[in-house]
């Protein structure tokens, strides 16, 4: 009976830690007026599904991502206070609570999508690469690290719980890959009415360049002007190019649009 009650207490601890972690993401998301779609809780982790309402500054997403792991600092501090000020919180409870906090914190910082570390890696790639390339680089990085993790678990550790977690992450990664085109189209649609990007940059293209190629060079937090290099240079706004992309098709050449 004592073993069962101990396991029950441990599960409650894990669920509490995961819940507080995810609510950290939710609180910061609400502060930036993002929509919260749902929160999923599992004994080995959780997920807050958030909707940014269009293109938002990278710093907002960085704050939201980091605010979940930040919650572990005050939870660990609270455990030390309870240990030294009450008779209810025993040393065994404290040690177990601290170990679970550290384990979940470190696990979430693994740079594998959709963990917090993977989301930070995506933000880093997005700072230097076009959005579609950043998605691909994030996915490849996650796949490589996940493969290495599987190898370590199978060969060196052989722990069933870790194999289940890595299997779940692999399934999530596969589903994310299958939805990559949908995510990219949503990004392009959001860029049409981008009100938050402030960094001005030009995309230089040849007159024979298709809108598909132009779209794949768009960066997340940039306000692009499309410059066509011909005998005489002419420009298009990103909004005009994306309108043509959705109305006429991605196969249309940039030279076929009405010149400005």
UniProtKB/TrEMBL annotation:
Cofactor(s) demanded: Zn(2+)
Protein name per the record: Stage IV sporulation protein FB
Principal location: membrane
UniProt topology in membrane: Multi-pass membrane protein
This protein's UniProt keywords: Hydrolase, Membrane, Metal-binding, Metalloprotease, Protease, Transmembrane, Transmembrane helix, Zinc
Positions of the Peptidase M50 domain: 11-83
Subcellular location as annotated: Membrane
């Amino acid at each position: 009976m004592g073993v069962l009650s101990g396991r029950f207490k441990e599960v409650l601890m894990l669920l509490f830690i995961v819940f507080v972690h995810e609510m950290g993401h939710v609180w910061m998301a609400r502060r930036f007026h993002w929509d919260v779609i749902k929160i999923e809780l599992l004994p080995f982790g959780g997920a807050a599904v958030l909707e940014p309402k269009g293109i938002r500054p990278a710093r907002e997403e960085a704050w939201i991502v980091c605010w979940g792991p930040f919650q572990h600092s005050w939870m660990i501090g609270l455990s030390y206070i309870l240990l030294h000020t009450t008779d209810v919180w025993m040393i065994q409870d404290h040690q177990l609570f601290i170990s679970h906090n550290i384990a979940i914190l470190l696990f979430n910082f693994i740079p594998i999508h959709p963990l917090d570390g993977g989301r930070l890696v995506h933000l880093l790639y997005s700072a230097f690469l076009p959005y579609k390339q950043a998605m691909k680089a994030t996915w490849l990085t996650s796949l490589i690290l996940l493969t290495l993790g599987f190898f370590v678990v199978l060969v060196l550790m052989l722990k069933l719980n870790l194999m289940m977690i890595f299997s779940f992450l692999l399934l999530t990664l596969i589903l994310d890959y299958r939805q990559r085109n949908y995510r990219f189209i949503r990004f392009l649609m959001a860029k049409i009415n981008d009100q938050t990007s402030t960094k001005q940059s030009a995309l230089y293209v040849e007159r024979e360049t298709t809108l598909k190629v132009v779209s794949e060079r768009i960066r997340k937090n940039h306000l692009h002007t499309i410059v066509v290099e011909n005998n005489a240079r002419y420009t298009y706004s990103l909004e005009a190019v994306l309108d043509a992309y959705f109305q006429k098709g991605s196969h249309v050449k940039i030279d076929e649009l009405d010149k400005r």
